[in-house]
Amino acid sequence: MLDVSALLFWLLAAITIAAALAVVLLKNIVHSALYLVLTFAGVAGIYILLQAEFLAAVQLLIYAGAVAILIVFAVMLTRRGDIKASNLYNFNYLAAGVVSLALLVIIILGNGRMAWTAAPAPAPASNVAAIANAFLGRYAIPFEVAAVLLLVAMVGAILLARGGKPER
Amino acid sequence: MITLNHYLAVGGLLFCIGLFGALAKRNAIAVLMGIELMLNAVNINLVAFNHFLAPDQVTGQIFAIFVIVVAAAEVAVGLALVLNIYRRRLDSNIDDLDWLKW
Fold it and tell me: Does the record bear RNA-binding in its keywords (chain A) (predicted)?
């Protein structure tokens, strides 16, 4: 008997993988960007299945919201030539396919060989409080470093994208 | 019954798709999309391990959040670089971006 969570898992996995394949295989980069949003939403659904609701919300806000908008903006600002052929392969796509397939075979073989002894104890009802305690307690210094990293990235992105004088 | 191996297989498949996109694409923005797919695959693995092997802790989710932070910083700086290169060269084809080679 197929229970509901297994059905949801297969559905979400199929959506995520199909959308990721569309991102890589389509020739129009605008379609690729839109399917990227679908992939991110599917990953958020998988987080909900894994009882990581806070992470699902973060995924939707940051990836499906901010990162996707950034990518669409960059596509619009750098568009040139025919949009129908804006996302082609480069010269070494055969080697890339061979490497990716080999890695996939290795991962699937190793994954099938490994039997994890999973003992899923009942998770806490809400793990937002546990995440907050970890961030402001044990992981306080990485938390602050991440804040500094975001500030540096923001300043750097503004400085790079603003351009300034072309020749100095 | 969905086990940890199912989630790891999804993560591995997503990682390989992203790797192919990052290696085989000509447009620099498409390469960044492939890298984002790979980072998402890693996050699925982290959260799945957290859920199945240590459900009383949140360490995997903490790591996933840090990965998301670094990915957001990376995509912002990367897209700014692409925009700057496009403004100077009118091109975002990575086969032509080789003027650091001698």
Answer: no
